[in-house]
Automatic annotation (TrEMBL):
PANTHER family: N-ACETYLNEURAMINATE 9-O-ACETYLTRANSFERASE. Its main location: Golgi. It is an enzyme of class 2 (transferase). Its EC number is 2.3.1.45. One of its GO terms (molecular function) is N-acetylneuraminate 9-O-acetyltransferase activity. Residues 253-734 form the Cas1p 10 TM acyl transferase domain. Belongs to the PC-esterase family. CASD1 subfamily. It is found in: Golgi apparatus membrane. The chain crosses the membrane at residues 269-291, 355-375, 395-416, 446-466, 473-495, 507-526, 561-579, 599-617, 629-647, 659-680, 692-711, 731-750. GO terms for biological process: carbohydrate metabolic process. This is N-acetylneuraminate (7)9-O-acetyltransferase.
Length: 756
């Protein structure tokens, strides 16, 4: 929007989200933990030099390294701090005035014999105003003194990070009598002098003294909470210290949710190859399109003057049309991936931190609920969990999850626990849907497996290449992929038990139940044996797929969190299909699922169970403890919802076409949100239109939904080409895909080696 360096924005502009969350203009600020701060500042020497306000900033800064530090000791003297474990030294030097003494200390650092600090934070003025009673002569002397210091600071800035902290405004009504001469008018005059003089001799140089002016903005909002009208409240000082940490450490630590002061990442070899591929696809499509247009003009229908008959244009060969469809799909995909890259890798668009309020989550929920109810239609069939109903279920769940992500509602534990149930419900549908297909159809062919795997993984594989992210980063796709393969293996392994075979002999039902019990035993064993689980997925090349940040812990955590729900989905499908086969349920239009007495009883139990789970989830105090119980109890609310939605015949006979539309592209919506609706890999919010949050959300949402829909169409088109029904052709394609992934592994290994 404005261009420029995000470091300048971080140091000079921003606003408060709520009371305590500071949002820099155009970029995201990372909240550093003690361990991260120590890793960044290892073997570093930091110096704070100035008055009591700088001393406060010094204490807030060292508390980021050691929260146990207490503000004690000589207030008008030097204060040392050292962390021997990380070889970090942070010193406060008491120089309350910009004078000859301060100049002499700064000059000593410019001389070759003395070790220079890596970071210097300086600032002073209020003492000069106080001691000299706010006289104009004191201001003139301040200008002379800072003029003599400026060249020394600029010289230090060539090898160290030098920050000059401008003076914060005061709350004049609270100032003591001895400080009444410190007015905001005087402070502005001193700040103006400092800004004008600093860097005056090095305006075109990259090595500059960084002016820390953002503290003024923070103080304007919070100084009225000051204890004495002069010194900032603790929360404001902590914000300033965190800004300092972000300015220096973001370029070193490269946190995902800290976009301020981070340089644009350089393109990897795989990204360059992807760029070349998409460019060639676009050029290829344009050439073929031009050739076809030219042929169309030549062969256009025209009347034969002699016979009076119409000559029909020549029909293109199927190979050309397949090639054109392939290039057309990759052409569109290339343009879409360019947008992805520009949104979340290039420093082109702004990014902001999330900030949760109850209204930002619940008002959009109510809004989409009203829309969903408004677009109600009759279903084509009235079976339990029919296609329209499952699409509707996926749709409203996906919309709720999207609102949850953009509003930052994960900080509110009751909402978090309910969202965990929605994710579990997706996996429940995975178990239910795939089990039902294999049980009824008995189709264990390679074509079916390849179709499912392609549709699930195509977009994620492309994003891994373009956005330079590991496969496990998009955790939900690996989760559903692995569970699909587990379902397939469970049912495909000998003896293959399907509905047709089981109808002839009831013993086959017990055989299937035995298979499901074996599956449950394996799940139980792996969930309580982290070592065995990690060994399985740490073997190469599986480790390339499931490692995140060098280990498979994240994958184990995600798998364990919903470990039983797919099994529950399979078991529910088995029981439901068995009841349906024996005509023990009524699925006619408008008919209750069971007899009136049974239906009413089950409906009452379901509503009570649903509300009981919600009450329990809302009373959660600790996320870790609730996550431990979640795998076992999430099925209660899922089954309760299914029964409430399906027992009454009139409810089962209608669906929301609004939610169903979103349900058909739910996977694409879930994946695309990472980079073109949210930002910084879901940690922040993409800002296309700065200054207008609601308008920005409307525009970015419209683009996001359109892109997700288009990618869904592209995936479906490519699935027909890449995964043909003919077995011999499919085998050739699989060999090509194996070659592609082998090349990808090779290039990935080369990248890793070059990085190390």
């Amino acid at each position: 929007f404005k261009g420029g360096d995000t470091c300048e924005y971080l140091l000079s502009s921003g606003r408060f989200l709520g009371e305590k969350v500071w949002q820099p203009h155009s970029c995201m600020m990372h909240k550093y933990k003690n361990s991260e701060a120590k890793n960044c500042l290892i073997d570093k020497h930091v110096v704070f030099i100035g008055d009591s306000r700088i001393r406060q900033l010094f204490y807030s800064f060292i508390k980021l390294l050691n929260p146990q530090v207490k503000e004690e000791g000589n207030k008008h003297g030097n204060i040392p701090f050292e962390d021997k474990s990380a070889s970090i030294k942070v010193d406060f030097l008491w120089y309350p005035e910009v004078n000859g003494s301060m100049r002499q200390r700064i000059k000593s650092w410019t001389e070759g014999s003395v070790a220079k600090p890596h970071i210097i934070v300086a600032g002073a003025a209020t003492w000069s105003i106080k001691i000299h009673n706010g006289s104009n002569e004191a201001l003139a002397q301040y200008k002379i003194n800072i003029t003599s210091i400026a060249p020394l600071l600029e010289k230090l800035a060539k090898s160290s990070d030098v920050y000059w902290v401008l003076q914060d405004p005061v709350y004049e009504d609270m100032l003591s009598e001895s400080r009444k001469m410190i007015t905001n008018e005087k402070i502005d005059a001193y700040n103006e002098a400092a800004v004008r003089i600093l860097n005056s001799s090095s305006r075109n140089s990259k090595a500059k003294v960084k002016v820390f002016s953002v503290s003024k903005l923070i103080a304007q909002e919070t100084i009225m909470k000051s204890a004495d009208g002069l010194h900032l409240p603790e929360s404001s000082r902590d914000t300033n210290a965190m800004i300092l940490m972000n300015v220096y450490c973001n370029k070193i630590m490269k946190p995902i949710d800290g976009s301020c002061c981070q340089p644009q990442p350089s393109l990897t070899l795989i990204q360059k190859l992807a760029f070349c591929f998409f460019t060639l696809s676009i050029i290829g499509y344009l050439i073929i399109n031009l050739i076809h247009r030219n042929n169309f003009r030549k062969n256009k229908s025209c009347t034969d003057l002699e016979s009076g008959e119409e000559k029909k244009p020549a029909i293109g060969t199927p190979n050309v049309s397949t090639l054109e469809m392939l290039l057309h799909s990759f052409c569109k995909l290339g343009l879409i991936m360019t947008y992805f890259y520009l949104c979340d890798r290039a420093n082109l668009f702004m990014k902001e931190n999330k900030f949760y309020t109850h209204s930002s989550f619940f008002i959009p929920i109510i809004y989409i609920l009203v829309l969903g109810v408004f677009y109600t239609e009759n279903t084509k069939e009235t079976k339990v969990l029919n296609r329209e109903q499952t699409d509707e279920w996926k749709g409203w769940m996906q919309l709720v999850i999207l609102i949850y992500h953009i509003s930052g509602a994960s900080t509110f534990l009751p909402v978090y626990m309910h969202i965990r149930v929605l994710v579990a419900a997706y996996l429940f549908q995975t178990g239910y849907g795939h089990f039902s297909y294999f049980w009824i159809k008995g189709d264990f062919g390679v074509y079916r497996v390849c179709q499912v795997l392609f549709r699930l993984n195509f977009l994620v594989v492309v994003l891994c290449i373009v956005m330079d992210r590991p496969y496990q980063f998009y955790y939900f796709v690996p989760l559903v992929t692995v569970w699909f393969m587990i379902i397939y293996a469970t049912l495909a392994i000998w003896p293959q038990i399907v509905q047709k075979k089981a109808n002839g002999n009831c013993l086959w039902h017990f055989g299937l139940l035995l298979k499901l019990i074996c599956l449950l035993t394996c799940i139980y064993f792996l969930s309580y044996s982290q070592g065995a689980f990690e060994k399985i997925f740490s073997f190469w090349p599986l480790s390339k797929c499931f490692e995140l940040n060098g280990n498979v812990y994240e994958w184990w955590f995600r798998w364990k969190l919903d470990r039983y729900v797919v099994f529950h989905g399979m078991l529910f499908a088995f029981i439901y299909l068995a009841l349906q086969k024996r005509q023990m349920i009524s699925e006619g239009k408008g008919d209750p699922l069971f007899s009136n007495r049974v239906s009413n009883g089950l409906l009452f139990i379901s509503i009570v169970s649903f509300l009981t789970y919600s009450i329990w989830a809302s009373s959660c105090k600790n996320k870790t403890e609730c996550n431990e119980l979640h795998p076992s109890v999430s099925v209660v609310q899922i089954l309760a919802f299914i029964l409430i939605r399906n027992i009454p015949g009139y409810v089962r006979s209608v669906y929301s076409s609004f939610f169903a539309w979103f349900g058909k592209i739910s996977l694409e919506l879930f994946i695309c949100q990472y980079h073109i609706w949210l930002a910084a890999d879901t940690k922040g919010i993409l800002v296309l239109i700065p200054g207008y949050p609601m308008f920005n959300v409307l525009v970015s949402t419209f683009i996001f939904v359109c892109v997700a829909h288009e990618i869904s169409q592209i995936t479906n088109d490519l699935a027909q080409i890449v995964v043909p029904k003919d077995n011999s052709t499919l085998l050739k394609r699989l060999l090509c895909i194996a070659g592609f992934f082998s090349g990808l592994l090779l290039f990935s290994a080369m990248q890793d080696q070059s990085r190390h």
